[in-house]
Design brief:
Number of helices of chain B: 10
Largest sheet of chain A: 6 strands, mixed
CATH class of the largest domain in chain A: Alpha Beta
Helix content of chain A: 25-40%
Number of strands of chain B: 2
Shape of chain B: globular
Strand content of chain B: under 5%
Number of domains of chain B: 1
Strand order of the largest sheet of chain A: 5-6-7-3-8-9
Oligomer: heterodimer
CATH topology of the largest domain in chain A: Rossmann fold
Largest interface: A-B, 54 and 45 residues
CATH superfamily of the largest domain in chain A: P-loop containing nucleotide triphosphate hydrolases
Strand content of chain A: 15-25%
């Protein structure tokens, strides 16, 4: 159980985390979501006692982390994959961490096997890929068989097999009754792993709810309606649906996206309007979409269009259309995804 | 989609009871750390090479210039010159013991595994001090034995000028070394250099950057002497004398009973005490900062 109360962290004038209160419960995977720079890692560091909060407090099992008598036996953490001295071998690295909490050397070999690094146990970690580094970090977190586990972006740099393995590992750890707290900036990843979500943006709490509630609260369902490819029929149906109080948006492929009306009602209206339907299907906006809508106002880093100044010759007059600078080059960072992405 | 898992009963209670960790655990860990990085081998190896090599070079220079018979410095003192360079290697190791962790990010892993940060620093200090003291004393012991073998037992009349303080000891008409000289040339200088390394560890903890900390330590070692040399104003004579007296090269020379300045009977104890005080203050600062600062 991790409990934060009024957690605030300021670095000079910049507030990284503001008045954050949440609980992470045992027996579930809790996803910690937020865009880059939203304060996820700062919060993780405060939980682990690496940074002290400016205000508020955070405890693990009711105790501030720095007062735990044997931290690795209670809490395991993967902060970042490269928090390792590259000159030591994987085994030596884990050994010196294990010795800090009186964990025997045999356990080191055991966790090296668990994360699949036994083959490279004696290689210097300097030569490890990002994925191998993540595995080494996860091995370090598992060393003390802790009841609370924190993973900061654990799937970064992992191959599909590794991602699958990490998901299963986290689910298994949670099913054993442990508290599993996983940060990510990828909603799609959390949708597959987490039971519960804590979403922050600009250091403030945006949501603290189960994945199911999150979807229900943040995404409206809609129906996809397809009529025979006759403009007249489509227009008739659109008029009828709009009259009944639905919002209708034409899709690029000729289908209609209808919200605000139940499916049977759409069917009835179509029947009354004498329009045949080729498709009538319910859709739920994806988690990704809900998350993006939620964090839209809280994104710190937006890209601008690359104008290649001084690298591209200005087109001579009369030679094709000029590359006009766009007034707002970056579209809304999170636009409504196309249909295929929604049908998850 | 959520991965299906079989739910098991209850939290996984640790089978082995959780015992509170203590300094012994941290010491074991730090010992593993210091012996598994190459910088330890490199710095201490270079120190050994410099101390022994330059000592042999000095002996060769003395004998080649025909000064063997008239060499009037203390018998064990040729070891001084190699150590003046060798100490820099020990300082480097002292800095790296902590800054390599900051540089690589390892420090976050360390302080997560042992949130009692001051304990980590204590363990680092003990392990590093023990190792550097042992190796430096060993190196200086070997040079002292070599110098003893070569320079003791020369007949006193052939040594032209000796007047007791800060020059060669004469015993039963031949050159010799008093027990206190032996102590100063082995344990004394070992202690001094290891303390200097400990100061480097404290400075490294405060600054967190290898290059910055090593540069600062070079300043500590070299600046007092250099400043003193250029300090010619008559009103500052007292300051100049103190700077010289407590500068690192002069302090090492004093431990070898080599008279560099003044006419007091030097033994290096005051310099050793001074360094111990400075190191203690720097360590106290390092502890205070380490406990409060964000990692």
């Amino acid at each position: 159980m991790i409990e934060a109360v009024g957690l605030t962290k300021r670095y000079g004038a910049k507030t990284a985390v503001y008045n954050l209160s949440f609980q992470v419960r045992p027996g579930a995977v809790t996803g910690f979501l937020g865009p880059n720079g939203s304060g996820k890692s700062t919060t993780m560091r405060m939980i682990l006692g690496l940074d002290s909060p400016t205000e508020g407090r955070v405890t693990v099992g009711g105790v501030p982390y720095r007062e735990l008598p044997n931290a690795p036996r209670r809490v395991g953490a993967l902060l970042d994959a490269k928090a390792v001295h590259g000159g030591r071998s994987a085994r030596q690295h884990l050994l010196c961490v294990a010795q800090l909490s009186g964990i025997p050397a045999r356990r080191v070999d055991e966790v090296l096997g668990v994360v699949g690094l036994q083959e490279v146990a004696h290689r210097k970690s300097k030569g490890f890929s990002l994925g191998m580094g993540q595995r080494l970090g996860i091995a370090g977190a598992l060393l003390g068989d802790p009841e609370v586990l924190l993973f900061d972006e654990p799937v970064n740099g992992l191959d599909p097999e590794g991602i699958h393995w990490v998901r299963n590992l986290m689910r298994t750890l949670a099913s054993e009754g442990r508290t599993v707290f996983v940060s990510s900036h990828l909603m799609s990843e959390m949708a597959l792993t987490a039971d519960h979500l804590i979403v922050i943006g600009r250091g403030q709490l945006l949501a603290d709810m189960s994945v199911k509630d999150f979807i229900a609260h943040n995404s409206a369902g809609y129906a996809l309606v397809r009529t025979p490819d006759v403009a007249e029929q489509r227009e008739r149906l659109t008029a009828s649906l709009t009259e009944a109080g639905g919002q209708v948006q034409p899709e690029q492929d000729g289908a209609l996206r209808v919200s605000g009306l139940e499916l049977p009602r759409i069917s009835d209206l179509a029947h009354e309007a004498d329009v045949r339907l080729w498709e009538l299907s319910p859709h739920q906006a994806s988690l990704e979409e809900a998350y993006m809508r939620m964090t839209n106002g809280a994104v710190d880093y937006r890209s601008t269009q690359d104008q290649r100044f001084g690298l591209q010759q200005a087109a001579p007059p009369g030679w094709g259309p000029p590359i006009a600078p766009q007034p707002n080059p970056q579209p809304q960072p999170y636009t409504v995804p196309s249909q295929s992405e929604d049908a998850r | 989609m959520i991965y299906p898992v079989e739910v098991q009963q209850g939290p996984a209670a640790p089978v082995v009871p959780v015992e509170a960790t203590n300094l012994t655990h941290a010491l074991r860990s730090e010992w593993t750390k210091i012996r598994t990085v190459r910088s330890t081998m490199w710095t201490l190896g270079i120190m050994l090479g410099l101390v022994l090599g330059i000592n042999l070079l000095m002996l060769w220079a003395i004998s080649a210039s025909g000064g063997m018979a008239t060499y009037s410095e203390p018998v064990l003192s040729p070891g001084l010159y190699g150590l003046m360079l060798g100490q820099l290697a020990v300082i480097t190791l002292g800095v790296l013991v902590i800054t390599s962790e900051y540089g690589t990010g390892m420090i976050r892993t360390t302080f997560t595994a042992c949130p009692q940060r001051t304990r980590v620093l204590t363990a680092k200090a003990i392990v590093f001090f023990g190792l550097s003291f042992g190796i430096t004393t060993l190196a200086c012991g070997v040079t002292a034995l070599i110098n003893w073998a070569v320079l003791s037992g020369r007949h006193a009349p052939s040594v032209d000028y000796y007047s007791g303080n800060g020059s060669v000891t004469i015993s039963n008409g031949v050159t010799s070394a008093a027990p206190a000289e032996w102590l100063g040339a082995t344990v004394g200088v070992g202690l001094y250099v290891a303390l200097l390394g400990l100061l480097a560890l404290a400075v490294g903890t405060l600054l967190r950057h290898s290059a910055g900390a090593i540069t600062t330590m070079l300043g500590v070692v070299l600046l007092p002497l250099i400043v003193a040399i250029f300090m010619q104003a008559p009103g500052l004579v007292k300051v100049q004398e103190k700077l010289l007296e407590y500068s690192t090269p002069v302090a090492l020379a004093a431990l070898y009973r080599v008279q560099m300045i003044g006419d007091n009977n030097v033994n290096g104890l005051s310099q050793l005490a001074m360094l111990a005080v400075v190191t203690a203050l720097a360590l106290a600062g390092a502890y205070a900062v380490l406990a409060r600062r964000d990692v």
